Amino acid sequence: MYINLCNRLNKQFYQEVLKPVVELLSDPDYINRMLLSQLEYREQMNEHQKKGYTYAPSYEEFIKLINSSSDVEFLKQLRYLMFHSSSFKTKHAALASLLLIFE
């Protein structure tokens, strides 16, 4: 009786839970939608990161951009880009060297 109950529960678990999950995860349409969603998210994050210093053609504009932003994550990403982007360092060398003092 115990073995019969275990077999019945295993079968029900497989049919009710495991099989639908495996079918969903192996569905090509679901996989494509998830990949597309992830790619769109990454593209949005890249645009948001690049937006920071590409809109600041001068030192003064860059300072205004920093002062006007209230998004802490954006400012952290901007700071990361400042220290790891060679194009930023050449474009805003004075600001980069000034920020190195405060790090």
From TrEMBL:
<feature type="domain" description="PXA">
    <location>
        <begin position="1"/>
        <end position="43"/>
    </location>
</feature>
<dbReference type="GO" id="GO:0035091">
    <property type="term" value="F:phosphatidylinositol binding"/>
</dbReference>
<dbReference type="InterPro" id="IPR003114">
    <property type="entry name" value="Phox_assoc"/>
</dbReference>
<dbReference type="GO" id="GO:0005768">
    <property type="term" value="C:endosome"/>
</dbReference>
<protein>
    <recommendedName>
        <fullName>PXA domain-containing protein</fullName>
    </recommendedName>
</protein>
